[in-house]
Structure formats: C-alpha cells, structure tokens
Specification:
265 residues, alpha+beta, six-stranded mixed β-sheet, 6 helices
Length: 265
C-alpha cells in the first residue's frame, strides 16, 4: 500500500486493502510503517501506545470483519520514553496473539547514496517472535533484520514455517539486495518468506523500493508486486516445506557438535 503523511488516510487505505485481500486470503500482511511515513522525525509524532492505539483498533476490527489473520506490518509504538518499530499479529477475532519490536535498527551511511539512522528516534527490541496458528508457525522480523541470518535461523529452530518481513528497502539497496536476501533466507532455513513493502512514492523523503514478494523453501518466487500499490497472493503448502526438508536435510545435517546457535535472552 502507498503510505502518505496522513494517518487517517493510511488507515482508510489499510482497512480497504484488508477487506479486499480477505476475500481470498487466510493471512494478510501489511508493510513496515504502514500508518506513518518512513522518516525518523515522523516516528515520534505518529507513535501510539499499543493499549490505546487508534491504528491497532482499526485494523483489529478490519481483520475480525474479514475473518483473517493479520500481521499489521509495523507502526511506531510508544512505551514510556521509548518508541519502537513494532509489528502486531491479530487472530481471526481481531485479538493480538503476538508482537515483535524491530531488533536491528537501520543505521547506515552509503556516501553519495543514502544516510539513515533509525536509532536517532527509535529503540531496538530484544525478543524473538514465533506465533503458533491454525495456519502453522509464523515468525516475524522487520526490514533490516532480514540481513542477520542468526535471527531467522533462531526463528526456524523455534519451529517457524513461514517468516513474515514487513520491510521498506530503498532505491539504493532494494534493486540489488531485496530479492536475493528473501530467496536465500528461504533456502537457508527451508521456510516460506513473505515480505511486504510500502508502494513507491517518488515525492517522499525516503523512497521505498516496493516489490513485495513471497518465496518458497526452494527459493522460487511465488508472487511479486511491482513498485506501485497492489495486492499479491500466494499459497503456502506446508507439505511441500516438509518435502524440501526431507529431500535436502540442511537443518538435520548441521554440525551441532562443532557449532551451535542459542538465544541468550
């Protein structure tokens, strides 16, 4: 969806697209910062407390009405003096059954291309999220998190079969890294990957790449959007996931006698 500098317009569009997607889908995914421009100065201004959030109330009602599970992309979430980049997972009754705060903040400086520092206004999260649903086990990470294979492997070891990535790559990194990262994380972990981006707005201070997509555990792209606003659909087949893991037993062949990965907190 296209995100503009008007929360009410963003919520209207999000609800509209949830309703439309819900006609065919069991799970709907919104993009990163779907109610707020991707702008570090805007994050604190748009931030809401999770237990008193007009944004979450609106999309909760939309999910319940559509009868879908919903990963509500992410929003700026305020808790006391902190603002987090947070995703909320709703069940068919519109209840929050999981949440995730972006763990790796996007602080980069590519000379002559792009400079961005999320840590200027955001605080990093510190908890993994894997949610058990009737559709399977679903993990959540956000955008820059995708670049850290340890995080996605930990979610896989906790049983994730689908990893959802609300993300907003830019025109410097997006064309070269977005699709390869999604496909290789699917292959490395033998999971489905579903990544949802805001549509491109050339007039925004931060121009997103777009190209929301879904990849299967073999690395095939099942569905892919362009740069503009649209809804794409893909079917998740957990029996195929099990077949891939049986045919190419990467997870079973790890040398845990030589190396291990553990969650400290």
């Amino acid at each position: 969806m296209k995100v503009v500098d008007d929360k009410n317009k963003n919520l209207f569009q999000a609800v509209k697209m949830i309703k439309e997607a819900g006609k065919s889908a069991d799970l709907v995914i919104l993009p990163e910062m779907f109610n707020c421009p991707y702008d570090i100065e805007k994050f604190p201004k748009y931030a809401e407390e999770s237990d008193n959030s007009s944004t979450l109330s609106e999309v909760s009602r939309a999910a319940k009405k559509a009868g879908v599970y919903l990963v509500a992309g992410s929003i700026p979430e305020r808790e006391e003096k902190h603002v987090y980049n947070s995703s909320f997972f709703f069940n068919l009754q519109g209840e929050i059954i999981g949440s995730y705060r972006k763990m790796h903040l996007f602080d980069i400086d590519v000379p002559g291309e792009i400079s961005f520092k999320e840590s200027g206004t955001l605080t990093a999260g510190d908890q993994l999220t894997v949610v058990e649903t009737d559709l399977g086990k679903i993990g959540i990470c956000i955008c820059y998190d995708l670049r850290f294979p340890e995080l996605l492997r930990l979610m896989t070891l906790q049983g994730a079969q689908l990893i959802v990535v609300p993300g907003a790559f830019n025109l410097t990194t997006g064309p070269v890294h977005w699709e390869p990262l999604i496909r290789v994380r699917a292959v490395d972990n033998q999971v489905y990957m579903a990544a949802a981006s805001p549509a491109r707005d050339e007039t925004a201070s931060y121009v997103t790449y777009g190209h929301s997509m879904v990849a299967d555990p073999w690395g095939n792209i099942l569905a892919k959007a362009g740069s503009l606003e649209e809804i794409v659909y893909a079917e998740i087949d957990l029996s195929y996931l099990e077949k891939v893991r049986e045919d190419l037993p990467l997870l079973r062949n790890r040398r845990t006698d030589l190396y291990q990965l553990e969650q400290i907190k």
